[in-house]
Specification:
This protein is of the alpha+beta class. It is built from 19 helices and 13 strands. The protein folds into three domains: 217 residues, no CATH class; 99 residues, no CATH class; 104 residues, Glucose Oxidase, domain 1 (3-Layer(bba) Sandwich).
Amino acid sequence: MKHNWEMYTRGTIHPIKLSMVLFGAAKYGAEYNGGEAGSTFYCNLGPKMWFAWDRDELEATGKHILAQTSTPEKRKRHFAKMQQAFDQAVAAVEKIRAMDLTSLSDEELASAYEAFLEAVWPPHGFLNSDVDAVDILPAERLKARVKRELGVSEEEFVKLWRVLSSPAYESYLQAEKKMLLEVAQSKDYKKINEIVEKYWWTVLGWETLALNTKGSYLAQIKEIEKTGTTELEEIQGYVERIKKEKRTLFEQYKLSEETQYQIDLFEEYTYWHDMRKEMQCKTVHATDLFVTETARRHGFEHDDLEWLWHDELLELMRTGKTDTNEIEIRKKAVGGIASKGAIERWSGEEALRKKEEVVPSVDDTITEVKGESASPGAARGTAKVCAGAREALAKVEDGDILICGMTLPEYVPAMKRAAAIVTDEGGITCHAAIVARELKKPCVIATRIATEVFKDGDLVEVDAEKGVVRRIG
């Protein structure tokens, strides 16, 4: 079957983590998303990973979502279904966190991992494709609809669209920061325990396995106390400010009720971007608990076992054996395709060949790319092209231009240092757009090819008013 892949890039993501996504999509994607979503491509070469959905299937899923949310009653049922899936995944994680894995027999450990996978595959099959699908066809249709109704110049539309697509809700990053600011202001350090309980997972990611602790939060609070808590008032007033700006535009341009309804729908999907991220972070952590315990009891290096697929980790749990030569091959190249319930996996030279067949090359004479303006402003600086968060944290210095596939919570320290942010991917509900607005950084998203066009050290100019990024000098 020939696929029309919608390609994404990240830093290293190991097979043991992608098992949840690929197998979840293959086994349950079509069941939850109108019988369409389910085909995925994955390839990891050293420090860089490529992931893709079939774009035609994403567009079909987008049509399904629009149909399932076309009335308030349908919309309520659709999001209740998403909430149920989310709750199922989080409950499975909390069950594992509460267990003493070291006390289990080998068979009990394997059975616990099997039960965990069966619980988290459906949510991953549902929420991952559903949330990504909204940024394709539904977002494109909404943008075209708003543009027609506004009836303004392209330049004016870009400015208005930024406001209309800004979510009027408090992201988990804002909520977390607000609690830290409040503790710094009140000096009520007992509340740090409440922050840990609620947000222990926010520094986790596909690449990062660290956790927030009382100590790490206390260090942040002490830093806030040095610099002041002036951000608190702005965060507290953010939601009402955005709501007011939107209401003003609704009335000024007499946007139709249907258009207002769809804008509100996308705002709810911005919230679900956060919820999906929470699910992903927490399930990655639970997976790591199984990897850590298996490595401990059978004498393997933790990092080596991350290169196994879930069924191979299960076999290791039960037998104490795995193919260490295959692990070394996968560190160089590993991948797979899931399509309509079937999984094909490869490593080494075969994975390299598949990557060359699937991932398109980019014309190396291109010096300018165009995307969507996610946060206004302009900046010039040195390009730092990053495959993942670890690379971004290591490379990006004050005033640099961060260029990456997309951003995730673990990118935030690098985003704060950057003069501007540019991504290949993203839509109106993406992390880069939300955080860039909060940081007041120029941001251009959805360039598709920025990470291929620009190289480290290039002097680049970001015009986030027009959504243009160019190499200069």
